[in-house]
Amino acid sequence: MSSVQKEIIVDNSIIKPLKFDPNFKKSYQSADFIYDVKIAEKGIWDRFLDWLSFWFRKIFGLSNMEVSEKYVNLSLKGIAILIVIYVIYSIVKLILNKEGQWIFGKSTSQKIMKYDDIELNLKNIDFEKLIKDTLKSGEKRLAIRYYYLWLLKKMSEKNVIEWNPEKTNSDYLYEIKNESIRNDFGYVSYLYNYIWYGEFDLDENTFEKAQKTFEKTLQSIS
């Protein structure tokens, strides 16, 4: 057999080794090269919304959670709107209410002492002066209340009744032994309830009649 000599080609070119940029990692830090997606943990509010959505779907028979979530969002927005409306209504009511006049200006002297404080300190109140100051500010209904409390004070001082802020008009009527005083007190109690708790504007004529009745009853207590 004859042997075939193959020509061997030897590459004698110089090979230059490649070098990596030490900061090559910076080129691969964008979102395109992040393959591990981390799911953010849900907060308390998100878990609450999921809970609501679950029950909405269960109670109302909704087709899927996505629909249920839409109904939950609409319901929460509706509730938020109602709360805002209620808060605005309360603020407006406070501003327009006669008890809220301190917001705009100086309070009158009778507003400094609350009604409850007056009842608790009945024996120490100068009702005559208090009523005069009240009428100067045009608050006739409040003046009638002070007339009523003044009458209770005077009857207590004369031992006609035993005053107690927890008692009712009926309690006091039962205590009054004098028939004339009992009848007068029954009538002024009716006037007081009608004027103080009545939702109407107290005109001058009605006030003057009530005022004269209270003053006459006060004078009759001896």
Automatic annotation (TrEMBL):
The keyword Transmembrane applies. It comes from the Bacteria. This is DUF4129 domain-containing protein. The chain crosses the membrane at residues 74-96. The lineage of its organism: Bacteria, Pseudomonadati, Bacteroidota, Flavobacteriia, Flavobacteriales. Keywords: Membrane, Transmembrane, Transmembrane helix.
